[in-house]
Design a protein that fits this description.
This protein has about 110 residues and is mainly alpha-helical. It has 7 helices and no strands.
Length: about 110
């Protein structure tokens, strides 16, 4: 189980540990509009950024998944972002709209 409390040897970034920042970032990927923003900034074409997305797949492990507020959409987004085709498609307003609508429908059907 990851320890989210600051370690005396671990540097803080704006008062947060690296794990806390990565957790916040990976959860933001569940927002299709944010993924579209990343694509519009050409980050999804940057090999270093793509490598970072691959690195973040550690959140698939149960000991890390437990920290996600919405593991289903978060992990699905992380999975989709591994695919070059999706990284191109997320620029399309239609793709973003379908993902956003799917998320709304999923949240409504749970209630």
């Amino acid at each position: 189980m990851p320890d989210t409390s600051p370690d005396a040897d671990e540097p803080l970034h704006g008062g947060y540990t690296r794990f806390e920042l990565e957790l916040e970032f990976v959860q933001s990927l569940a927002n299709p509009y944010y993924m579209n923003y990343l694509a519009s900034q050409k980050l999804l074409q940057d090999s270093s950024f793509i490598a970072y997305l691959k690195y973040l797949q550690y959140f698939l492990k149960p000991e890390y998944t437990r920290y996600l507020s919405y593991p289903g959409p978060t992990l699905k987004a992380l999975e989709l972002l591994q695919q070059e085709r999706f990284r191109q498609d997320i620029l399309s307003p239609e793709t973003v709209g379908k993902l956003a609508e799917g998320g709304v429908l999923a949240s409504v059907s749970r209630n």
